[in-house]
Write a structure and sequence with these properties.
The protein is 41% helix and 19% strand. It is α/β, with parallel strands linked by helices.
Amino acid sequence: MTLRIAGILLSMIVRALHFTLRVRHVNVDAATRTPRHIFAFWHEHLLLMLHSKFQYPITVLSSSSRDGDIAVSAYRTYGVDTVRGSSTRGAQSAMRGVIRRARDGSNLAFTPDGPKGPPHVVKEGVVFAAQMTGLPIVPVAFGAARYKRLRSWDRMIVPWPFTRAIFLYGEPIVVARDDDAEAASRALESTLNELARRVDEEFEAVWQEGKKR
């Protein structure tokens, strides 16, 4: 009960924070033109990602830990479904559950370097899901003009209230069932790192790019 309440409070805080932000979605066409897809983003960008342009219905793979309990409660307030598991606990059954949800019509969301890192390294789950479901992977990154990084393993980004923020979407990546999974993982990793670099080092340029669209 306590963890469920913590999740609800977390979602309220995130919603309130998002309400204060000036947000632009850059290259959002990459997401909206593929109504069935797999969203992929680094764990450091997780906090505000429920306000990105993902498509419903959507299922998130969430950790079986106590932190995962809080996250699941928060996801529910957004109408987001979950499958519990990770790369170390319940991995095979969780992946079967995720693929089953996708085949039933759900979109998917992954933090490829979660739940405990190493940061910015793509694990095999997201690519395997793409191979098994045929859904394209839409990479996305979040950035803010002013933000704080937490002292967590992922150095999670928390934007300051009333600042500007951007969601930057990459072009969909299709992974065929017979494609080399390792090569696909490294390609996704490179794309996510480039998106993360741009929203951090080129924030003003990306912000202006969003204004033109």
